[in-house]
Write a structure and sequence with these properties.
Helix content is about 30%, strand content about 25%. The chain is of the alpha/beta class. It has one domain: Rossmann fold. The relative contact order is 0.17.
Amino acid sequence: MRIFGKLSFLFIAFSLGGRLCAEPLLEYQVKAVCVLNAARFVIWPTPALANADSPVVIGVLGDNPFGSLLQDVVKGETVQKHPIVVRRVSLEEASSVHILFISSSERARLDGILRALDNASVLTISEIDRYTDSGGMVGLTLIRGKIRLETNPAAARRVNLKFDPQFLLMTRSAR
């Protein structure tokens, strides 16, 4: 699926109030597209993407629920003209990525993970319930068979990241 198809799919998702019916495979296809498109709606501070040929790195912390879906979705895509790389990371490596997907397997360690990233300009995304209420930036939660996107702009601002206002209009913000 090329970018037009991904954006069209995401537009349909947002037009349904940020919710989609989700079969297990479809759920993670949608979540993978949401990770890619969330990256496109974030403005990083200049040093984070200063080198024109450096990739945007998406790290997956914990169990990888995507299998190869996330890699398949980002293949050939760019964020601000930067190629995208997906890799598994440890907590020690998490501050060196641009985007960190925190798997639900890390629920018990969430507070420590977010504290470890306090000073890093890393966009954090997770499928953990009430993730944005816990201080995370983008939550992808499954509620009654629907995927809901939630944002926490204050958490992003604390590490010098900004969400595009259009993205915030399409998501539900944490209180």
